Amino acid sequence: MQSFKKYAAEFIGTFVLVFFACGVAAVTGCTGEADAAYVATALAFGLVIVAMAYSIGNVSGCHINPAVSIAMLVSGKLGVVDFIGYVVAQFAGAIAGAAALMGVLGDDYKVLGLGANGLYNNDVTASIIIEVILTFVFVLAILGVTSKVENGAVAGLVIGLSLTLVHLLGIYFTGTSVNPARSFGPALFMGGEAFSNVWVFIAAPLVGGVLAALVYKFLRLKEEK
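RE: above sequence
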């Protein structure tokens, strides 16, 4: 039952992330142009993380992102069974969130989109490098701030601001994924190029998450081990 509650929390958190944050990107018409929609979308992703961290964080840790979960697996903070459960719940939540967003937008979603990611200049290699770097920075921040119990009160805020930071740069390039589930949900319903290229936004964040975990293992202080 305890594991089920964790998976349910991850489902809910990822649903909220996609519905609200990708929803803001859709209804504001966010593109790579530096405008109010760009900033609003970056803030929306960060604010959702803050809200979810302080609501479901004490249940599941509020990963709501397979890249975070794989980093916790590599770090020894999450078992294999829970890792699988988390990832399944995260993808299910993202799909449900995208479906709900499509439902409320109606036919407008065909024009507004669902906040799906896209390749930077149709360059797979560049997009992978960008996403690996963005995810590495984001996950490294998570590993650092969650490494000490005394950071608990501010951890959600730090993580949310870190996600805002990577979006402020990454939206211009790929729309910013750093989260395989968040990318898969919208791409599934948008189809076309969004779906055919979604593998980039699944693989690159996972690589970035693993790299962040390995680097943090090397850097962390002895007393944290």
